[in-house]
Amino acid sequence: MQDLDKLQSEALAAVAAASTLDQLDAARVAALGKKGSITGLMKSLGGMGPDERRAAGAALNAARDRIEGALAAAKAGLETKALDERLSRERLDVTLPSRPEAMGRIHPISQVMDEMAAIFAQMGFDVAEGPDIEDDFHNFNALNIPPEHPARQMHDTFYFGEKADGGRHLLRTHTSPVQIRTMLANKPPIRIIAPGRTYRCDSDMTHTPMFHQIEGLVIDEVTHMGHLKGCLLEFVRAFFEVDDVPVRFRPSFFPFTEPSAEVDIGCSREGGELKIGPGAGWLEIGGSGMVHPNVLRNCGIDPDRYQGFAFGMGVERMAMLKYGIPDLRTFFDSDLRWLKHYGFVPLDVPTLAGGLTR
Ligand code: PHE
């Protein structure tokens, strides 16, 4: 019994030192288990006289109670600690989106071309394409722009070397050569749009050497200027999602259309912010006109039987106006922050039914 104090403090020290439930249980067994140190002393009670046993028994019971109390407290502490650890390990942020964040964005140029295609598709237009590398014939001659024509100077053309037949390859300066390719390959009625890249040797604040246009071409037996106006009016209203955009046709000149008109839309400026709709200002969005008889003839179409209209618009310009993008050159900087800001979520495909813009 002289050992009791020592055994008790050893047992309490072991309890205090236990940092896991297993270690704590080992401390319990070492003191209070079948072969434990305190249990051993309990067994010695039998060999004592009644008085001695009473005193020793009371002391042993007190020691056992103290150790059991320490065990219970330590167990509760370790269990709380284990639960806290598990909770922090298994922590779930329920405010996170249920799926991984969609990566990547659709470039505003692609978005706007898709929007335009959706609108024109509704009006019955097919999408046609032509090559970026064209030749004099499709880009100029067939469009009623002969070699000495002053309009050629207006197109700052990137030329390649001479072809075997004396003609030249070039980067198309507009999408109008797709008109020629379409009319050569198809019989009227024709109703197509042709979005795509175009190139001019020009680079400053408002011009980039590569840019995008969308061409439109309608050829039929009864097509007239009223159809052209109605078509573009309808398009502009659908595209800008504004019901009362004023559209103005300003007399102009293109060798491949007669008469020709530049297309302006109405706008206003509110505190420096441009708004498409009725207002004091006008913005040019493209060229248009009735297809010139020479162009029809160049494509083997009888101008006495067929007429049609054509138009061409700048895609960057339309994107800038619709989405408030201030600087043309940023379109081609490949800056991911810009794309994240102005880009579109890939699966939000523009449709007239589902909404062009979200
Ligand atoms: N191709 C002309 C341009 O690039 C635009 C245009 C297309 C004008 C069709 C009339 C008809 O400026």
From TrEMBL:
InterPro entries assigned to the protein according to its UniProt record, in alphabetical order: aa-tRNA-synth_II, aa-tRNA-synth_II/BPL/LPL, Phe-tRNA-synth_IIc_asu, Phe-tRNA_ligase_II_N, Phe_tRNA_ligase_alpha1_bac, Phenylalanyl-tRNA_Synthase, tRNA-bd_arm
Binding site for Mg(2+): 258
Keywords on record: Aminoacyl-tRNA synthetase, ATP-binding, Cytoplasm, Ligase, Magnesium, Metal-binding, Nucleotide-binding, Protein biosynthesis
Gene Ontology molecular-function annotations: ATP binding; magnesium ion binding; phenylalanine-tRNA ligase activity; tRNA binding
Compartments, as annotated in UniProt: Cytoplasm
Reactions it catalyzes: tRNA(Phe) + L-phenylalanine + ATP = L-phenylalanyl-tRNA(Phe) + AMP + diphosphate + H(+)
Database matches in Pfam families: Phe_tRNA-synt_N (PF02912), tRNA-synt_2d (PF01409)
CDD domains according to UniProt: PheRS_alpha_core (cd00496)
GO cellular component, as recorded: cytoplasm
Major subcellular site: cytoplasm
Enzyme nomenclature, EC number: 6.1.1.20
GO biological processes: phenylalanyl-tRNA aminoacylation
Keyword rRNA-binding: no
Limits of the Aminoacyl-transfer RNA synthetases class-II family profile domain: 119-346
Enzyme class: ligase
PANTHER family: PHENYLALANINE--TRNA LIGASE, MITOCHONDRIAL, PHENYLALANYL-TRNA SYNTHETASE
Assembly mode: Tetramer of two alpha and two beta subunits.
Name of protein: Phenylalanine--tRNA ligase alpha subunit
